[in-house]
Amino acid sequence: MDVQVQGKEIRDAQVQSKEIMDAQVQRKEIMDVQVQGKKIRDAQVQSKEIMDVQVQGKEIRDAQVQSKEIMDVQVQGKKIRDAQVQSKEIMDVQGKEIRDAQVQSKEIMDAKVQRK
């Protein structure tokens, strides 16, 4: 009887030992899943950081385009001002030529009047 009890106790201990080992395996699997979850979250953070950098890069490129457009407008404005100055200079010259022609015309008329 004692041998049978001891045998049962040994088998019970073996069962408990196996259950403990199974629990340890499950615990390790849970820890592995937690580690994988952390790796996934870290990868998501890195992915977001990469996207943020890409967005910043696009904003920088957009700002560069805007800066170039502003410079182009400034250049066009200078060309317009230069053209206005040239136009005024041409008008001044033409005005002087007209006045000179008027003076010459008057002198010719005066000369004709004096000959008569």
Q: Would you mind describing this structure in some detail?
A:
The protein is an all-alpha fold. Helices cover 98% and strands 0% of the residues. It is rod-shaped and about 170 Å long.
Tell me the major beta sheet: none
Range of strand content: under 5%
Share in helix:
over 70%
Low-confidence stretches: none
User: Which value, in Å, is the CA radius of gyration?
Assistant: 50 Å
Instruction: Report the span from N to C terminus.
Output: 170 Å
Shape: rod-shaped
Helix tally? Answer: 1
What's the rounded overall pLDDT mean?
93
Order of helices and strands: H
Structural class: mainly alpha
By DSSP, the count of extended strands is 0
Helices and strands in order:
Blueprint: H1 2-115
Main traits of this protein?
rod-shaped, 98% helix, 116 residues, mainly alpha
Compact overview of the structure:
The chain has 116 residues and is an all-alpha fold.
